[in-house]
Amino acid sequence: MRTRIRAPYDRIFRLAAEVERWPERLPHYRYVRAMPDPSGERRYAMGARRGAIPVRWEAVQRPLPDERRIEFLHTGGITRGMSVAWRFEPAGEAWDVSIHHRLDLSWPLIGGLVARHVIGPRFIDVIAGRTLRRIKALAEAGA
Fold first, then answer.
1. What's the pTM value of the predicted model, to 2 decimals?
2. Sign of the CA dihedral running 126, 59, 7, 67
C-alpha cells in the first residue's frame, strides 16, 4: 500500500509516528493507550473499526526518523507476530509513503489461507488504507 504525499517529511513522519493522537486524527481509530514496558519500548493497546466491526491488538512501535521508517511489531491480538513497516522515500517535491505488513499465522492447516484471504485483505489492508489516506489529507492540509 503506497501513496504520494506533497508535504514536508517532518510533518508526515510526525503525523504517522504520534500514534497516541491517532484516535483524534483518524476517525476509524477507537483508542490508542500507552502500556508499561519494562524494557522501555513504546508499547500500545490499540483499537480501530473495520466498518462496524471493532478490532483490537497490542503493538510495540519503533520510530526511526533518520532511517525514514516506523516499525511496529504486533504483540497481542489475532495479528500477534505481524510486523509492519512504514517507509518514506523522497519523490521530488513529495514523499512516497508506504505501509508493508507481514503476517504469518501459525495456525495448523488454515493459518496461511486466513492471513492471505481474510485478515490481510479484509481487515489489515482496509484499516491501513484508511490510515494512510487520512495521514495524507492531514499532512497536505498542513496539520
1. 0.92
2. negative
